[in-house]
Amino acid sequence: MTTPARGTATATEMAVGAPTGRKPVEPVPRWAVRVAHAIPLCVLPSGLWRVALVLGLAGYDADYHWSVWERPYVIGLSLVSEGLALLALGLVRPWGEVVPDWVPRLHGRRIPIPAAVVPAAVGAALIMMFCAYAVLNQIFGFVEPLNEDGNGSPTSGPAAWALWTSYAPLLVWGPLLAILTVAYYRRRRANDASAAAWPEAG
User: Fold this and answer.
1) Is 78:51 a contact under the CB 8 Å cutoff?
2) Residues 43, 169 contacting (CB under 8 angstroms)
3) I need a labelling partner for 91 at 20 to 30 A (CA). Which of 9, 21, 25, 66 fits?
């Protein structure tokens, strides 16, 4: 007897990448769903640290004089980063393959594979490059410190540990997104090939 939970999972698998009334050749694997949900969680700590910094709760630079545009920029950066991370869910959800119903004129249309794969692949590459540069800059100090006290970031004490702990998860954002993108590409190709062969098989 099928439990409701398993029935829901099966329905979700059939809804993603499947021709109507036909089970997909390659449904979304559970590990891919976990990876897609892990990506926003990896980005969240750094965003929370930046919000704490703006509110003066990061234990660092409490006397820093913020320019008018700096606080909105830091908050906006956190929101945009988290929003981009949440887009990874589209690689495992139906709205990443078919335009949702609430989109006027385009709803119900299949999203071309390159329209999802190219931005995701470019994004993964840029994220990995940025993270690599950030790590190397932390080690070798390519960029001069921007703060008035001569320190670009906290280098010791609880504030430094909070900073490093918050930003360390970002290092896996790029690789996880790359893996998820490859899985999406392979699944879409397999299911589209199955859909093309379906009339002949019928």
Assistant:
1) yes
2) yes
3) 21
Per-residue pLDDT tens over the stretch 36-72: 999 999 999 999 999 988 888 876 666 677 888 989 9
- With contact defined as beta carbons under 8 Å apart, do 10 and 27 qualify? no
Burial of 179 (0-12, 13-18, 19+ CB in 10 A): middle
Return the closest-CA partner of residue 115 out of 99, 102, 129, 130.
Answer: 99
Give the residue from 97, 7, 86, 94 showing the smallest Cα distance to 47: 86
**Contact in structure between 15 and 96 (CB atoms under 8 Å):** no
Find out whether 26 and 195 touch, Cβ atoms under 8 Å: no
Q: For the whole model, what pTM was predicted?
A: 0.80
Q: Say whether 102 sits in a helix, a strand or coil.
A: coil
C-alpha distances out from residue 66 to 9, 74, 114, 150, 172, Å = 49, 11, 42, 16, 31
Q: What is the pLDDT of residue 54?
A: 87
> 100-156 pLDDT, tens per residue?
888 888 888 999 999 999 999 999 999 999 999 988 887 877 766 544 455 556 655
Q: How deeply is 126 buried, as exposed, middle or buried, from its count of CB atoms within 10 A (0-12, 13-18, 19+)?
A: exposed
Coil, helix or strand for 98?
Answer: strand
Amino acid at position 176, single letter? L
